[in-house]
Write a structure and sequence with these properties.
Helix content is 39%, strand content 18%. It is of the alpha/beta class and 315 residues long. The structure holds alpha-D-ribofuranose (RIB) and calcium ion (CA).
Length: 315
């Protein structure tokens, strides 16, 4: 089996951590680099967490490139420690790098993304599960990445679900709507793994109990989950420790796209006002002429949840 080579652009984050460990536990995937972005916390914290996660997973050989500290146009509006904990890792006390030798590479994330994609034409899948700032900056640096990338998959946006940070906006798109607008307009072979599917795939107390009794990855995920579970209970009233599996579901799509179905629609992003960050899909295919995006709308939720839990329990 030839493995998909992925660049993972992320703002870890509890669900980002789950997605990264899921990738590292999956034989279909080769993670060739991790790039960090502000989002769930500051760039200092998300970069520290990326380094610590790879150290914990005994994969410190995977390069980490530090990325954007703020959106392209707007000021930094909010981070999400109320959802992910003060350390953005479920309050497990990750306030420092675990090993002083852990460092990001010298090259900034946008340059690393552009150079890596251009060095391997047609081979790289870019999976972005945070604000899209690094990818938009990479596009400015090297527009030919649109043709050279194999596929871009993003966790972000929504076609038919209400927003999770405003009535209409999903967090990653809301955090840097100008970057998202650039990415949606660029013509990438683009798949949007939005709230339409990620809020259908739940994990709950039973899954975390199973992970707690499993190996290193499982135990770690069970350790970082409780704060995130409590945030879901407070925000949505979910029972039984249920969570939405945003970033792991996006990784599951990269692992096995047959578990999802999408529709190709043009999508535009509102950049300001009360609709900031809203992803507007032309479901009648009549009104917009921007490049079509594969918007995932249906998912085999039990099988995706099973894939996530079984893989995380396997290491
Ligand atoms: O809206 C959910 C997304 O926002 C996830 O990627 C989460 O990690 C945060 O970045
Ligand atoms: Ca994320």
């Amino acid at each position: 089996m030839s493995r998909k080579r992925i660049l993972f652009d992320t703002d870890p984050g509890v669900d980002d951590a789950m997605a990264l460990l899921l990738a590292l536990a999956s034989p279909e995937i080769e993670v060739i680099g991790v790039t960090t972005v502000f989002g769930n916390s500051t760039i200092a914290a998300t970069t520290r967490n990326a380094l610590n996660l790879l150290h914990f997973a005994e994969r410190a050989d995977i390069p980490v490139a530090r990325g954007a500290a703020r959106p392209m146009v707007l000021p930094l509006q909010r981070t999400a420690e109320h959802v992910h904990g003060d350390d953005a890792m479920g309050n497990i006390g990750w306030h420092d790098v675990l090993d002083p030798n852990l460092k990001p590479i010298e090259v900034p994330a946008a340059q690393f993304i552009a150079e890596t994609i251009m060095a391997h034409p047609g081979a790289i899948t870019l999976l972005a599960v945070g604000p899209l700032t690094n990818l938009a900056l990479a596009l400015q640096l090297e527009p030919r990445i649109v043709q050279a990338v194999r596929e871009v998959v993003i966790m972000g946006g929504s076609v038919s679900m209400p927003g999770n940070v405003s009535p209409v906006a999903e967090a990653n798109i809301h955090a840097d709507p100008h970057a998202a607008a650039m990415v949606f307009n660029a013509g990438f072979p683009l798949t949007m793994v939005g709230l339409d599917v990620t809020m259908q795939v739940k994990m709950d107390d039973n899954d975390f109990a199973r992970l707690r009794a499993a190996g290193r990855f499982g135990k770690f995920v069970a350790q970082i989950a409780p704060f995130y579970q409590e945030a879901h209970r407070r925000r949505y009233g979910y029972p039984n420790g249920q969570i939405d599996t945003h970033d792991p579901s996006a990784m599951a799509y990269v692992i096995d796209p047959t578990l999802f179905e999408g529709e190709h629609w043009s999508v535009v992003v509102a950049t300001e006002g009360p609709a900031q960050g809203m992803t507007i899909a032309d479901r009648r295919r009549r009104f917009l002429d921007t490049p079509p995006v594969n918007c995932l709308m249906r998912v085999d939720a039990p099988r995706v949840a099973q894939l996530i839990v079984e893989r995380l329990a396997s290491v």
